[in-house]
Design a protein that fits this description.
234 residues; alpha/beta; Rossmann fold; six-stranded parallel beta sheet; three-stranded antiparallel beta sheet; 11 strands; 34% helix; 20% strand; globular; AB_hydrolase_1; Pimeloyl-ACP methyl ester carboxylesterase; methyl salicylate esterase activity
Length: 234
Amino acid sequence: MARFLLIHGAMHGAWCWHKVVPLLEAHGHEAVAIDLPSHGDDPTAPEGVTISDYVARAVEHLEPQTVLVGHSLGGLTITLAAAARPDLAGALVYLCAFVPPPGVAASSYRRDAVTDELVAAQEGHRDRGVTTPVLDRAGPVFYSGCSAEDVAFALPRLSPQPVAIMQEVLDFDLPDIPRHYIRCLEDRTVKPSYQRAMTEGWPEGTVHDMQSGHSPFFSDPDGLVRILDAIADT
């Protein structure tokens, strides 16, 4: 059985995995969902938080052969955490996530990767160095296909997103470990076209498709866990 470390995306927290953790455990896996600095229940102020802070938090929870699962912006964190501790990372799973190339900042490709709907669902605060969700627009973008109960659970828990995460140039050497990508074909946040482009040429059996919006951990947790369980068996 596998040990999964679940890393949330922008503005989210460990809370977004609350359906997935018990399902993975029911399959006999260990599943750990964490709050990155300034998100969820973590008290860190978002101003000044860097990608190094995110990575340090993830590395704290690595053990040998950990499967890192990164949702959306969490793709940056899992990549850098694996590069920092290749001796502990067993595999990387990108869930409708950014797959960062080395030597550039995510801001250089963000507008090609995300939808106009997402841009309209965020508000920038340059004086604080954060973006915040526009709540009356964020629901359909983040949670298309999710129940009204899931949307009501999630929206009040969204947190400010430090913009420095997107602006830092990421220098790393990716370790030679298995990589998987779960594409969400009805995503209204990260363009499905970007997800297809990111996975072009990946080995057979490493790309998995879901008929889902951006948050299958809410809309189809059973389907998501079936894929993660299959990945654990490879």
